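User: Reviewer 2 asked us to show a designed sequence for the structure in our supplementary figure. I'm pasting the structure tokens here. Could you produce the per-position amino acids so we can include them in the response letter?
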């Protein structure tokens, strides 16, 4: 019954998406990946990878504007909360994780795509772009944790109760602390809380932070958007670290954003960045 409540909350958030949104189930050796797609079918492809637990629905505040310019494909990460269903062959390594991304792109018939990831999704997007430059038209990383610097010990300490024993109350307490009590969409909060406590998940495979040499001859000029009020890391320090390894990268600090609000708020600023 609780899992049904999670799916009901997921559907409520998805109803905030454009009316023509299409649910696509993509089959790979690792299971069935749910992709929510909208926008012109012949438009340039934009693949959105959410943060852990956020699900593909988290882009609801931005997707209408994005779908005016792109064919948007928002992915439920395999093994995470959402409607992707793992198969018998689990994802047990970074290689398999990145191969899963390739398989999803292949099944969607996307030889190339713009990638945009938030948080854990940004970690996946960066790792994928480093290994598969020819498949990536553009790369946008929203507050990428553990990509260019360490996470704050204070953030990790607050996250520890969820990591040890997730439940609805702990998840909500954590996100309200990180967002400084910002007014968040109540339906999406239900998705986050119910998903953390009840959605079936598997072991999270985390790409390692790239070494500086990995960016030599990268060939992709990324846009890195950082949350000025975020608590996962210090935005100014991460911006400096990005410029050290990627001098041509475009970096933006959104002063009023926090780590967890970034995919949703403020919509106007995020869309301006992604569409420019």
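Assistant: Here is a per-position design you can include in the supplement:
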């Amino acid at each position: 019954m609780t899992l049904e409540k999670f799916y009901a909350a997921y559907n409520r958030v998805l109803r905030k998406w454009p009316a023509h949104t299409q649910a696509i189930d993509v089959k790979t050796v690792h299971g069935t990946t749910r992709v929510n797609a909208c926008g012109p079918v012949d438009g340039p492809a934009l693949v959105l990878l959410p943060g852990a637990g956020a699900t593909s629905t988290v882009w609801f505040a931005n997707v209408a504007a994005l779908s005016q310019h792109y064919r948007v494909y928002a992915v439920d990460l395999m093994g995470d909360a959402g409607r992707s269903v793992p198969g018998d062959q689990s994802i047990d390594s970074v290689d398999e994780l990145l191969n899963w991304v390739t398989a999803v792109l292949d099944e969607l018939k996307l030889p190339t795509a713009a990638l945009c990831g938030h948080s854990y999704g940004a970690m996946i997007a960066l790792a994928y772009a480093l290994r598969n430059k020819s498949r990536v038209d553009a790369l946008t990383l929203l507050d990428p944790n553990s990509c260019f610097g360490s996470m704050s010990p204070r953030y990790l300490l607050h996250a520890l109760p969820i990591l040890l024993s997730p439940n609805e109350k702990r998840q909500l307490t954590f996100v309200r602390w990180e967002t400084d009590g910002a007014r968040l969409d109540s339906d999406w909060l239900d998705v986050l809380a119910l998903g953390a406590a009840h959605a079936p998940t598997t072991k999270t495979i985390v790409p390692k932070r790239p070494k500086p040499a990995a960016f030599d001859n990268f060939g992709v000029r990324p846009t890195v958007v950082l949350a000025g009020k975020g608590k996962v890391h210090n935005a100014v320090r991460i911006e400096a670290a990005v410029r050290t390894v990627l001098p041509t990268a475009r970096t933006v600090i959104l002063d009023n954003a926090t780590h967890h609000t970034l995919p949703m708020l403020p919509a106007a600023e995020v869309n301006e960045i992604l569409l420019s």
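For the response letter, you might also mention the following. The chain has nine helices and nine strands. The mean pLDDT is 94.
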